[in-house]
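pasting for ref
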Amino acid sequence: EIQVKMKQVAPDATQQATLKECYEQNCRFAAEAIAQADFFLLATGAGWSADSGLSVYRDIANVEGWRNRNLTYKDLLDTEPETFYGFWGSCFNDYRRTHPHEGYQIVKKWRDIFFTDPNFKLKKASKLKKKLSEVKPDCTTFSKDDFEDSPGPFFIYTSNVDAHFLKAGFKRQEIHEIHGNMETWHCKSPKSCKNSLWSAPPNWQFKIDTNTMKAEIPAPDTTKEKKLENSGFGTNFPTCSHCGGLARPSVVMFSDNDVLLDPVSKAIYSSWVKTVTDEIEKNPEKKVVILEVGCGSTVPAVRFQVELLHLILGKNVTTIRVNPEFPLADGNVRDGVFLPIMNTGLETIRKIDSYLDKIFL
């Protein structure tokens, strides 16, 4: 059993100087590793989305309307509906209004050039497909067509809930959003209702008072029949179509015991990791690159997963950690190559891409 002991430490002054001095060299090494790899995992956190102009965790509730009420992020997760939907509705609106940054398309280009092996097949694909087909249609946002097209040697593992990888055109079956996404919703009391998931309508926007940061309160429904008629996104307070109660986004909140996450993406990701590790065991010459971008210390789940995979894959893996504050390894990343790059994500992606263009393309 492999155990990861993690302790995030910012580089000291000497390490910072070395990292700045080696920036160009490390970006070139990263480009070489990507071009020579057989498998590629992109792992992203809030810093990746920040390059699109979205807030990172520590700033997401740093808005005047909430500061005036002395509310923090955690306070906003369990409050009266106008504040709850004011917060999540403003996030929803921001995610929809914001366009994914250039880095999405750069990485998609890498996928299409380097990681489209038609011979790559998920381990026990038919068994997985049968298992996934048994998931009730209203318990997943995956369609039957999604099951027909398996991921290739490329995969995305992200804690971001903005659904921007889907918006940027990546395939649903090559993305595992570990904390869910704001486009998917379910009943706020799933334990006493059905485990149904549904998607927000394409043109929906919440109505938010920007002075108070509260959602506008809809007119009350006088009967249960009227409530069910307006269910889903019939009003500014989304409701469940089964029970008429309030709805919530399918995203992991702090101290959250009621979230429903789509079970399909986790199953596909687990199968992908198993397939890659088995391939490495059979063909020790094959190589894996993990590119981690913008994963900080506030929610370290992605960093933990990346370092665990690094230990599992051993000498076959090159892990590239791009982070302006915490680029160093948190644990004992023995074997393989661990490449720390102290900078923001988009700038580094562009730099790596420029080396790929010069050297390999």
